[in-house]
Amino acid sequence: xxxxxxxxxxxxxxxxxxxxxxxxxxxxxxxxxxxxxxxxxxxxxxxxxxxxxxxxxxxxxxxxxxxxxxxxxxxxxxxxxxxxxxxxxxxxxxxxxxxxxxxxxxxxxxxxxxxxxxxxxxxxxxxxxxxxxxxxxxxxxxxxxxxxxxxxxxxxxxxxxxxxxxxxxxxxxxxxxxxxxxxxxxxxxxxxxxxxxxxxxxxxx
Length: 205
Known about the structure:
Layout: E1 2-5, H1 10-23, E2 33-35, H2 53-68, E3 71-81, H3 102-112, E4 122-133, E5 136-148, E6 164-166, H4 178-184, H5 186-200
Parallel strand pairs: 1-2, 1-3
Antiparallel strand pairs: 3-4, 4-5, 5-6
C-alpha cells in the first residue's frame, strides 16, 4: 500500500514517518510505502484557512489525493492554551505572522503568558489526521494534556515542544527522545487510531 503524506514541513514529515514506522505499518519489511509531495511537483501548497484542525486536515488530504492519485494522509495540529481562550489553536504554526517561524511563535506565546501562575498554565496539544482514499474521507483525533513552562527547555522536537510539559512529567517534549514523545503525543495517538482503522479494513497486516 502506498501512502502520501500531505505536508512539506520536513520536521513534521520526519516525525510522522518515525511514528508510522514505530507503529509497524511502514518501513523495512512492512506493508506500507511512504511518499511525500516532493515526488509530485505539480501539487501545490494548500492554504490552511479552516476554522478547525479537522477542516484543515481534510482539505489537505483531499487535495493531495486528487493531485497525486494516491491514498493521502494529512495532519493538522496545534496548541490550545486555557489562559488564552484556546489560542493559538489552528494558528499555531503562524501565531507570530504568516511566515512560519517556530522561535517567533514561541516567544510570542511566552510574552502573552508572562505573569500567569502555574495553576493557570494548562494547555493541550491537539491533532487531527485525515485519510483520503477512493472510498472517501476518515478522520482520527488525538490530544495530550499538560502545562506550559516559563522558559524553553530541551533541544529536540519542534514548535512549542520546549515549553510543553505533558501531564505527569517534569520534562518538556523537547527534552524527551523521539520514542518517549511519540508514545504519548497527540500525533502518536491519532496515528495509532489510523493504524487500527487500516487493520480493521484489511489494508495493512
